[in-house]
Amino acid sequence: EVQLVESGGGLVQPGGSLRLSCEASGFTFSSYWMSWVRQAPGKGLEWVANIKQDGSEKYYVDSVKGRFTISRDNAKNSLYLQMNSLRAEDTAVFYCARDPIVAGQPGAFDYWGQGTLVTVSS
Amino acid sequence: EIVLTQSPATLCLSPGERATLSCRASQSVGRYLAWYQQKSGQAPRLLIYDASNRAPGIPARFSGSGSGTDFTLTISSLEPEDFAVYYCQQRSNWPPLTFGGGTKVEIK
């Protein structure tokens, strides 16, 4: 059974940092692109970043470029999101999602974790 | 950036009725469009990928159609568990991968 379990969320002050983790099980983690998707309270879904199987390619939404860093450790079956210079508008539930290659490219998220809440507030 | 516009924002229907949800893209996405269902307090679930392919385990009452800029998700006969928010998402031209604003299907 595919499982994705996020951790690391919490309350942080504006300008602060937080590192999210996503532990994967039930599939060959190193064979999949992985993504982070967030959802602000009461709002829709926003893709944040994704990373290729070997970590050689990483992409970000413009609003987090230069502040967030996606990474992975295939030996630990884990995905990470380092978030620096956090702003109030980063407050959201952050989901990790499996991002399989379909018809030659990623971007259709077939499994999601339950999410971890990040609250940026003073 | 490709903008996806979903309509209507809210759909009020009764169990057993047919639901038709629309997603329009600001430029062609070919058939690289997916649909997700999200129930309150839960993570999204993939329903349809590449416009019309049902994800494993998704009931046949869910179907997707369209190509280019206009797409439709149809639920042929609403079950009580289908009342939720539905999002479309494109993977044709990225980054960024983008989602629509969602359609809430609520009980009439």
Percent helix range of chain B: under 10%
Amino-to-carboxy terminus distance of chain A: 40 Å
Q: Which structural class fits the helix and strand makeup of chain A?
A: mainly beta
Overall mean pLDDT of chain A stands at 97
Q: How would the global form of chain A be characterised?
A: globular
Q: What low-confidence regions of chain B span 5 or more consecutive residues with pLDDT below 50?
A: none
Q: Could you spell the SSE succession of chain B in H and E letters? A: EEEEEEEEEEE
Structure overview:
The complex is a heterodimer of chains A (122) and B (108). Chain A has strands spanning 3-7, 10-12, 18-25, 33-39, 45-51, 58-60, 68-73, 78-83, 92-99, 111-112, 116-120. Chain A is mostly beta strands. In chain A, the strands form two sheets. In chain A, strands 2, 4, 5, 6, 9, 10 and 11 form a seven-stranded mixed sheet that branches. Chain A has a four-stranded antiparallel sheet with strand order 1-3-8-7, with no helix packed on it. In chain A, strand 7 and strand 8 form a beta hairpin. Chain A starts with a strand and ends with a strand. The model of chain A has no long low-confidence stretch (mean pLDDT 97). Chain B contains no helices and eleven strands. Chain B has strands at 4-7, 10-13, 19-25, 33-38, 45-49, 53-54, 62-67, 70-75, 85-90, 98-99, 103-107. In chain B, strand 4 and strand 5 form a beta hairpin. In chain B, 36% of the residues are buried. Chains A and B meet through strand 5 of A and strand 4, strand 5, strand 9 and strand 10 of B.
